[in-house]
Every structure is written in C-alpha cells, then in structure tokens.
Amino acid sequence: MTSVQVDKQHDGNEAAGKAPEEGYQRGLGNRQIQMIAIGGAIGTGLFLGAGKAISMAGPSIILAYAIVGLVIFFIMRALGELLMYRPVSGSFSEYGREFLGPFIGFVTGWTYWLFWVVTGITEVTAAATYVQYWNKGIPQWVSALVFTVALFGINLISVKLFGELEFWFSMVKVTAIIGMILIGIGVITLGFSDAGDTASFTLLWSHGGFFPKGIGGTLMTLQIVMFAFLAVELVGVTAGEATNPKKVLPKAINTVPWRIGLFYIGALIIILSVVSWTVFKPGVSPFVAAFQQIGLPAGAGIVNFVVLTAALSSANSGMYSTGRMLRDLALNGQGPKFFTRLSKNGLPTWGTGVSVAMMLAGVWINYQWPGDAFNYVVSFATISGMWAWIVILLSQLRYRAKANRGELPQSEFKAPGSPYTSVFALAFIAMVIVMMGVDPDARISLYAAPVWALIMGVGYLCIQRKNAAAAAAEAVEAPANQG
After folding, report:
1. Are 129 and 425 in contact (CB under 8 A)?
2. Taking a C-beta distance cutoff of 8 angstroms, is the pair 148, 360 a contact?
3. C-alpha R_g of the chain
C-alpha cells in the first residue's frame, strides 16, 4: 500500500486501522506472535554480549539493563499506537513515509533492510563460531553457508513455517533462562554445588561496590545493552501477516516489561549472585561461566546450544523482515518493481532471495577473517537498528499531534505518558549515540553512517528522476492511446 493510497483512504477503513490487503497470508497466530515478541528481546546480546558489559560495569550492569528496558518499553508502546492506527507489513518504514515524508520512509526501509542483512551476517557468523565448540575441524565458513541455505529454504515454504520455527527457537531460549534462574536460586538458598559456599546476593556489592567501575563505566555499556534489545521491534513487521493484529499485537507489546524483568534483570541478578562479576570476561558467555562455576560440566554445552539457536533465530528473523521491507519499498516506487512479486504462498521470494545473496557475503567474510568477522559488523548493526527506533518515536509524535487535532482517528492503544515518554526515549538514544562516539570500538559505526546517508541521498534522487520520467512517459502515451 503506497503513501498516496493512504492519503486517499484515511476517511475509510484504512484510516480506522484495518489492515490493508497487501497480498500476504495471515498465517501467524497468537502463540507464534507472542513467542516472536519474546524471542526478539532475547538474543546473543544477552547470552554472549553481556559478558563484556559485566566486565566493564560490574553489578551496575543490572541498572543499565533496567533503564534501557524502560526506554524499549516506551518505544514499543509508541509502535503499538501506530500499529493499532494502521497495521501494515511495512510498519515503521510506512509510518515514516506517511508522517515524516517519502525520503524518511525511503531511508528507513533501506536502512532497516541493511540492518537485517548485517545482523544476519553477524548471527550466522556467531552460529558458525558456536559449532566449533563441538567440532573445531569444521571450517567456520562451511557452517555459515549451511545455516544460510537452510534458513533460506524454510523462508521459501510458508510464513506459518517461519512462525513455527521462531516459536521453538524462542522456547529453547526461554526454557534455558528460566532453568538457569531456578538452578541459581537453588545454589544461593540451599548452598549445593561447587559455588554453594560463596554464592550470595552480597556479591552484588561486596567486590568494589555496586558501581566498581564508576558511573562512567556503566554509561559506556549502554550501546552494548542497546544492541542486546535490537530486533524487539520485529513484532511490528509481522502486523501484515498476523491473524488478528488488533488483539494479538497489544498483548505482545504489553509483555515487554515482564520479559525484560525476568529474562534480563532477573537472570543477571541471579548470575551475579552465584558468580562474582570479576570472573566474567569479554567474549565468554556469562551463562557458560556461571555453569562452570557451579560445577555442571554439561551446562556449558547446553548454553552453547542455546546461544546457537538464538543466533539462528535472529538470522531467520532477518530473512523474514528483509523480504517484507524490500517489497514495501517497491510498492511505494522506492525500489525495483520485481520485489513486489509474491509466490503462490504469499511470500516475497524475490526480496528474500536478494537479501540472502547479500548475507552470503558473510560466508566470504568468515572465510577471509574468521576471527574478526563478528566485530566488523556488530557496531554498524547497532546504529542502523536505532534509526528504526528514532523513526518510530518521531512518527508516533507526529501521528498523536494529528490525531489530537482531529485530522486522524485516535488509536485504540495509546502510548501512556506520550509525548513525554517518546521525547525522553529520543533523548536517551541521542545520549547513547554520543557515548558510541567516545568508545573507540563503537566509533566505526558513526564513521559509516555519513557514507550510508550519502548513498541514500543519491539513491533517492535517482529514483525520483526515474519516477518522474516514467510519469511523463505515461502522460504522453495516454492521449496517443485514446486517439
């Protein structure tokens, strides 16, 4: 559905928030949407990246996750307000196009597409690394290639199969975290295992205090923590294929607080009470370290399997979302027309196929630089993912202003505290971007951003000229055909 169609139909069902006919099959049920929402907030950023964050901030990392989690909830409620106004598969790209202008929609669509391509490379790289835990004889690039091809095949069959796979991927992650929390509580309260004599909640402040690296150390972890939550907005992309979006999506969004409270804050409190924060190191999963400290030899292998499924889940989500984003761009004249084609099963096969071809570049990266591949792409994924959040918040502010003036219908799922919560979230994201500029390891993404912006500007001008030329040609042909 194009922005022009939106303008023409605001007084009808589309403006009332009913899903437009985009050609997709509504094959994602409540059970799958709920688990996609849960899984989107649990990934390698928690299972693997938290190790570096803990070493940088100590126990205060719990506070960092709590604050960022609150900001994420504000973002998701802003997205929910927009989704109940008009649930479309293009999601925030479409909202950016409608409320912030066609150029912002263009940039958002292509940037989010690039985000998932880059993230897909990152996660396939991580998955290939995890395989070497069991068999170091398998080249990293071979595992990356196998995973990429297998997930692509799944995404070609049906959206229902995608949803089912995501359901079970998320189930593995949820079960693992709950199991870790229960085991940790048992170690702390009952004192069993090798860590039973030292495990205590006092570990949260007994080794240098709650802020052993100072407030500055905690602030420097914010971009790592933000990366952990990237993809939580994926539930918005599923709107066009949810069986009952007005009922399912609000439920999924409202579970964000308890998901963050249990799976992030709860898990970290228990882990840091079982093992002193001084034990954790960058590049080592805190879950693996905790199991080793407890003395469960099989625990490390179990966690490695869990983080493998987390990485594959993220890569699977990337293949799903990239095809939808490219089709949304094409429908709005901002991408090649062949991306609009759907398979017999209602799948954007062309968009997904081209995206996977780009992800295969990750296989080459694994072949060339197997040790550094993950670090090369993770920082750019963070800044490009945050752009989607910025557009969501700005679009929601513009929509709310128009709705309050009576120009658009009010959403049935208003963001509480808006506009103040949305402005606060925007200010927080701006602070994190500044902190990324201070961090030498994350600064590379800020160097890449202006280059991408230039590419977007040139690309938009070329598309505008092409569309103008096509419109002029149609105008000339019309009188001739009538004559």
Report:
1. no
2. yes
3. 23
Amino acid at 188: I
- Give residue 52's Cα distance to chain centre: 20
Q: What is the three-state SS of 373-412?
A: HHHHHHHHHHHHHHHHHHHHHHHHHHHHHHHHCCCCCCCC
Q: What is the pTM of this model?
A: 0.85
Contact of 45 with 263, CB cutoff 8 Å: no
Distance CA 483, CA 480 (A): 5
pLDDT digits (tens, 9 = 90+) for 85-126: 887 766 788 899 999 999 999 999 898 888 888 878 878 877
Q: What are phi and psi of 380, to 5 degrees?
A: -70, -30
Cis peptide before 419 (omega within 30 of 0): yes
β-bridge mates for residue 166, sequence order: none
Structure tokens at 254: 């409202």
Cβ(151)–Cβ(312) below 8 Å: yes
**What is the CB-side half-sphere exposure of residue 213 using CA atoms within 13 A?**
17
For residue 268, the 8-state DSSP code is H
Report how far apart, in Å, the C-alpha atoms of 382 and of each of 59, 258, 329, 347, 475 are. 23, 24, 22, 28, 44
Q: What is the pLDDT of residues 11-66, one digit of tens each?
A: 344 333 333 445 666 666 667 776 776 666 676 667 777 888 888 899 999 999 99
Q: At what angle do helices 50-57 and 267-274 cross, to 10 degrees?
A: 60
Task: From 37, 16, 42, select the one nearest 310 (Cα to Cα).
Answer: 42
Provide, for the chain, the percentages of residues in helix, strand and coil under a 3-state DSSP scheme, each rounded to the nearest 5: 75, 0, 25
Q: Both tokens of residue 201?
A: 């909640």
Q: What is the pLDDT of residue 99?
A: 94
Provide the phi-psi class of 207: left if phi over 0, else alpha when psi is between -120 and 50, else beta: beta
Cα distances from 327 to residues 11, 109, 230, 331, in angstroms, run: 25, 10, 22, 6
Cβ partners under 8 Å of residue 347, min gap 6: 155, 156, 158, 159, 323
